[in-house]
Amino acid sequence: MSDHALSSAPGSARARIPSVPGVAVALVGLSVLFAVASPGFLTAGNLSNILVQSVILLLLALPMTLIIMTEGLDLSMGAVLTLASLVLALIVVATQSLMLGLAGALCVGLAFGLTNGWLVASLGIPPFVATLGTLGAAQGLALIVSDGQSVVGIPRFVRLVYSGEVAGIPNPVLIGAGFYALFHVLLYHTRFGTYICALGGNREALTLAGVKWKRLLISVYMLGGAMAGVAALLMTARMNAGHPTAAIGMEFDAIAAVALGGTSFEKGNGWIFGTLMGVLTVGVLRNGLNLMAVPSSVQVACIGVLVIFALFLDGMRSKKS
């Protein structure tokens, strides 16, 4: 079976979702709500702040989109990000080398991505169960390597990764834009993207085409782990430290953003731009609640409601299709 046949099959990369009105309504509605409730919401400084603070979530949501398109899930992503951030902080403080720290974070992410992929693809363990187990492992290791304490003493050159600018554009925004473009090309203009869609919509076609789909599925989870390693650099630079609970639960924000953006949990249908809009929606929600001095516990509950709303939208899309 040819690549052309794969690309024309249901769930191919060329079958893009033309519009996702749900996420647009949510983004505009929340923006209007917070603009009325908080006069400082629409200031240039605050809008820039939303963009910068949303980048870390975007780095998780982009690979989460691909994982969900394969009818998978990665609940360990936030815990892996936390562990990778701690490893990066420990290495940078000890060696004063940003590259060594980033390499350590990437190794952590790739190791967990490989483990997740192997459990799901080779052993056939459901993604929810497999990644729930690795979530616990990553959380435990984070507490072990840090002894439950924050890692401080981060050098200034690390902090500049988050706080610096190029031509007036914040570094995180440039990094986020670069990875967004990379994933857009990867999904829509490469064989890899076509195969990812087939993983969720037509695995039989991959088998007939001679594609080793188990290796492909493992590589998708490894990509998610690698992106958690990259996000660890921004997380550490933003917090000026490594914290053993820094990103716990962030995977739910990523899942909410992806589902809001129109990516379906079945049939390999996904939309990268929709994921970007979903990330901005989550960012607007968190920022607006902060401006209104809403307690963090209530914010978590609001994100939970957003996740339920996102899954509701996905269910409605599935019924219509």
From TrEMBL:
One of its GO terms (molecular function) is transmembrane transporter activity. It is found in: Cell membrane. The chain crosses the membrane at residues 20-43, 50-69, 75-93, 100-119, 157-183, 216-235, 291-313. Its main location: membrane. It is a multi-pass membrane protein. It holds the Pfam family BPD_transp_2. Keywords: Cell inner membrane, Cell membrane, Membrane, Transmembrane, Transmembrane helix, Transport. GO terms for cellular component: plasma membrane. This is Ribose transport system permease protein. It comes from Xanthobacter flavus.
